[in-house]
Amino acid sequence: MKGEIIHDETDGKDLTGISLAIGNGIRQLKSLCKRDTSIYVFS
């Protein structure tokens, strides 16, 4: 599902935009669930 959101946001952007979007998503996951290492490892 996240892939769809990232793809939607970077409709007309370069791969850099996708990397930034993924980085932000991982940071949010780490902040929300620092206990679950599997979350950002899976991402």
Oligomer: single chain
* Envelope shape: rod-shaped
Radius of gyration: 11 Å
Mean pLDDT: 64
Low-pLDDT segments, ≥5 res: none
Q: Kindly, what is the distance between the CA atoms of the first and last residues, rounded to a whole number of angstroms? A: 12 Å
How would a textbook summarize the main sheet?
none
H/E element string? Answer: HHH
How would you classify the helix and strand content by structural class?
mainly alpha
Question: How many strands?
Answer: 0
- Work out the strand percent: under 5%
Number of domains: 1
- What is the helix content? over 70%
Number of helices, where a helix is a run of at least 4 consecutive DSSP H or I residues = 3
What key phrases describe this protein's structure?
43 residues, mainly alpha
Describe the structure concisely for a colleague.
This protein has 43 residues and is mainly α. 74% of the residues lie in helices and 0% in strands.
